[in-house]
Amino acid sequence: EPPNPLPLKHIRMKNTPLTEKHIALGAKMAPFAGYNMPISYTGIQEEHHTVRDKVGVFDVSHMGEFIVRGKQALELIQHITTNDASKLGIGQAQYSALPNEHGGIIDDLLVYRLPEDNCADGERAYMLVVNASNIEKDWNWVNAHLEPNAEFIRGFDTKVINISDQTSLIAVQGPKALQTLQPLTGIDLSRIKYYNFAKGKFAGFDNVLISATGYTGAGGFEIYVDNKQAAAIWDAVFEAGKTLGIAPIGLGARDTLRLEMGFCLYGNDIDDTTSPMEAGLGWITKLGKPSFIGKSIFEAQKAAGLSRKLVGFILEDRRIPRHDYAILDAQGQNIGKVTSGSQSPTLGKPIGMGYVQTAYASPGSEIFISIGGKSLAATVVKLPFLQQS
User: Fold this and answer.
1) What is the pTM (predicted TM-score) of this model?
2) Close Cβ partners of 258 (under 8 Å, ≥ 6 residues apart)
3) CA torsion through residues 191, 194, 198, 202, sign
4) Which tens digit of pLDDT belongs to each residue from 62-92?
């Protein structure tokens, strides 16, 4: 008699502490990175314009958060990330990447320099904010580099704590975000510059972290809170913004907002096979800092020149370029592929990003997108698509 088959692993979508709020608001829900997430409420176009013109609220509690604390916390972060974390003062954050040994990107992330140092012991404290789809991969990668290795015989004198499952993240974005949130806190939010943060009392809760590291280009803040506080803070934010046109915003509009700004989306525009140099992220790849993972590869790429680059383009046709569509030259030869594409609600035109051979990467270059058997003309443009005044 054959052995009993192994039971199928039961895969269950995770909810955030705000899932019931989304369902009550009539959100269209769908799986994203293992979570049951709101894709849209009233429609992507309307939600997009709400963020650009007024104020919108995103539940991004699916993101991952790791605390890194110890005497060699900085040394660990310097070794595993591309940016120079030694430049961070308390209350500052930076955009960075986790490179692999082959020059690809394990993940893009935010690094926060936290105030919870233990000065007596010489310990520093940081928070890494990683993409939801990469939490387990990133966690394993970071912990693998805590152990002794050829370069760091004793490993790093630091510890890493995964607080992802205890932490909720609410992003309040748009030109009226400051007006909405200021009545809820004694922190002067107008003094929080881009890529800075403060901790304090917010909506009656202590020790709330409020940052200005938005992913929409519309201004605003991100609120990191304990899961148990998330629903009350969500309600307080909507009450504070009810006369300002506040609305909940889904991941659909989040994608069109970030694309208009030329911000990369992991899994689309960057992944384990793309170099930060190719992706236009040389500005977060600090070759002047001491040795870090992948440094020699990036130095070689800079010296030799890149064979491909990530570019933005605007399509002349009305059809939308989709992920993995081929990019062609005027003779119909394949010169790259689309990584992201959408109708731009602000510009009223189809826009996209993709990797092309370097010869076609200059703004003004004519390229063609293969859609439905046709080659549709497009023009390479300087990112972001929305030029900031």
Assistant:
1) 0.94
2) 215, 216, 217, 265
3) positive
4) 999 999 999 999 999 999 999 999 999 999 9
